[in-house]
Each structure stands twice: as C-alpha cells, then as structure tokens.
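Q: Got a minute? One more chain.
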Amino acid sequence: MVEQFLSLEWNVLPYLETGQLHIIDCFTYRVSDRKRMFARMDDWNQFLHRVTSSATTTVRDPSDTSELQNKLDNCLESLSMSDSGIVVIDSLTEFGTLVQPVQAYDFVKDVRADVCKGRFVPVFAGATFAGEGDVFPYNMAYVMDGLIDLQLNGSVIEDVLVKRI
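A: Always. Here it is, folded:
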C-alpha cells in the first residue's frame, strides 16, 4: 500500500514516522511462507517493511469480523481519533470474498456507526465493481459516506480502471 502511495508521488513516510498514518493489514495472512517472502524482498521492499512495521497492525483472520473491529477500534483509540482524520478501507471487494454478504454489510454498518457516528470520523472505502447487479458491494452507497468505485469503462479510455467517487 505504501509503495502504491509512493508511486503516485505521495510521500507518506513522514506520516508513518510521526504516527499520523497507521495501516491495518488484512492481506498478509494470505502469505503462507513469510520467511520466503522476506528472503525474496529487494533492498527497497526491506526498507519499506522496516519503516511500516511499527505503524502496521496485522489481522490474523480478516474473516473474523470481531477481530477486525477490535483491531480497528484499538488503532483509532491509540491514535486518539475523534473528530479528526479519516478511515480508508481498501478493499471492500477483497473483504466480500472472505465473509457472507450479510456479514460484510453488517460489518460496514457497524464500522460506520462506531467510527462515523461515534467518533465523528468519515469512512471511505474502495471497491472494484464488476457489474453484476447482486454481488457485494453493489449497493453500498446507502451505508457509506464515500465509496471509491473502480470500474472497467471503455467509454472513457478503453480497458482502463476508472476511479470515481
């Protein structure tokens, strides 16, 4: 994630160092052999890992929504996030592959209630929508303050993901 920010020329490293940016990692659990992953890292990725390690909370099982909610709440509490900052979820599409749609919608609604209403912190979420009418997260607009929707839309530029808010 940090590497993607840097590739867009958004230098987030100072924010990681000052504790203004924190990452809750719900993806690394997929790596079965972490020693091999670290051994394959080049110098740049090793540096990024060192820089991000203190600002990253790893979720052991992202399909356990209570663990995920606890890690998020602990992170927000440690950052004293109330009436400041934002929470960004990337990606609802990935999350939707881990749990049943009802659980996914309930999780999003619970996060919105706790974070938006309880802490006055907006929540933005990213999703890739393939166009199927009844597949999660097709109707998230009613439970989110903002949704970043990535679609393949040939009418703008052929075969390019178009970001829209």
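A: Helices lie at 2-7, 13-18, 34-40, 43-53, 65-78, 92-98, 101-119.
Q: Perfect, thanks.
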